[in-house]
Design a protein that fits this description.
The protein contains 11 helices and 8 strands. By secondary structure, it is of the alpha/beta class. The protein has a single domain, classed as Aldolase class I (TIM Barrel), CATH 3.20.20.70. Strands 1-2-3-4-5-6-7-8 form an 8-stranded parallel beta barrel, surrounded by 6 helices. β7, α9 (168-177) and β8 (181-184) form a beta-alpha-beta unit. The longest helix has 15 residues, at 140-154. The chain starts with a strand and ends in an 8-residue tail after the last helix.
């Protein structure tokens, strides 16, 4: 499974890359706004760091406007992926962009049938928002499982990006199901490294090492 960083913070992206977990980046208007910097300045810095897909979202709500924005964004670098909202206008834009060879990620997806429509339109990626489903007492991961079943049934090559990830259990569940990609905030990716038994074990090893005579190599 691939790990995407759901952030536009440069230091976070650099750190995740140093960990060896950075397969790509996802952004959205909310994430970009948190940086309080000019949009293009942030994006170009991200593109200079990241070798994998960098997801940039359009803000137009009509298909024509989305396509125009997407063409400009895609011209920034060959690894740019355009995030398009799951609407009728958005799907029309995806179909047009697909015909132009511009990669797309259909975002704000909440049902398996929405994902099916995105795949039929030619989307390269689809992003089910599982955390927001969990927030209203539903099982978000069930949506991912259903999408995987549908895509496998019909041979769609659209990759699933498990989004709106709240905690490491979401990543574990996504991996168990065989989801292609998970995109997570910095703090969630960092939590993957930690376990209390690891800390206890390391502490014990270091204490025991102090008892070794002449421990130098």
């Amino acid at each position: 499974m691939k790990f995407f960083a759901d952030t536009a913070n440069i230091e976070e992206i650099k750190q995740i890359k140093r960990w060896g977990l950075l397969d790509g980046v996802t952004t959205n208007p909310t994430i970009i706004s948190r940086e309080n910097r000019p949009f293009k300045e942030v994006v170009m810095e991200i593109l200079n760091i990241v070798d994998g897909p960098v997801n940039l979202e359009v803000i137009s709500t009509d298909a024509e406007g989305m396509v125009k924005e997407a063409i400009k964004l895609a011209s920034l670098a060959p690894n740019v992926v355009i995030k398009i909202p799951m609407t009728t206008e958005g799907i029309m834009a995806v179909k047009e962009l697909s015909s132009r060879g511009i990669k797309t990620n259909v975002t704000l997806t909440f049902s398996p049938t929405q994902a099916l429509i995105a795949a039929k339109a030619g989307a390269n990626y689809v992003s089910p928002f599982i955390g927001r489903w969990d927030d209203i007492s539903n099982e978000g991961m069930q949506v991912v499982e259903d999408i995987l079943t549908i895509f496998n049934n019909y041979g769609y090559t659209t990759e699933i990006i498990v989004a709106s990830v709240r905690h490491p259990i979401h990543i574990l569940q996504a991996a168990r199901l065989g989801a292609h990609i998970v995109t997570a905030p910095f703090k969630v990716l960092e939590q993957l490294f930690h376990h209390p038994l690891t800390d206890i074990g390391l502490k014990r090893f270091l204490e025991d090492w102090k008892k070794v005579p002449n421990p130098e190599l």
